[in-house]
Amino acid sequence: MKNNQIGLRKTKQRELVLGVISSAPGPVSVNEIVLLLEQCSHNIGIATIYRTVNLLMDNELIQCVRLQDAIQRYEPTNIPHHHHFHCKQCDKVYDLEGCYLHLDNPILKEGHQVSSHEITFRGICKDCGKKA
C-alpha cells in the first residue's frame, strides 16, 4: 500500500489485512482473515478488520465477492478477470486462472448486451479429494 494513496494512511494493520487478502489463493471472508492473521501471530481485533476492509473497499484496493452462500469474501481489485471454485466440503474459495467462457459476440441471441460475467464452479477441491 502506498502512502497517501487516495488519502490512505499507511498503518501496520492495513498492510497486514491487505497482505492476507492479496496472498490468499482466492477470496477470503473476514473470519478467514482473522484466522490467517492469527497463524502469523498477528492479533487484530475483528472490529479493526471490518473497518480496514471497508476502507480498502472504499479506496478500490479490494472488492467484495458474493457467492451463493451469501458470505462476503474479498479479493484485490488489481487481478485480471477470472472465475472461482467453491469447495462444498471445506468451504474454501479458489481463484481459477483465466476465463472459461469465451463469447464471440457480446450480444446474446435474446438481444441482451453482455458487459461482464461471473462464474463459480462448485465441487470438491483437490485437498479434500485427497482426504477422501
UniProtKB/TrEMBL annotation:
Family statement: Belongs to the Fur family.
Keyword S-adenosyl-L-methionine belongs to the record: no
SUPFAM superfamilies documented for this protein: Winged helix' DNA-binding domain (SSF46785)
The entry's keywords: DNA-binding, Repressor, Transcription, Transcription regulation, Zinc
Species this protein is from: Lentisphaera profundi
Superkingdom of origin organism: Bacteria
Protein name: Transcriptional repressor
Pfam families: FUR
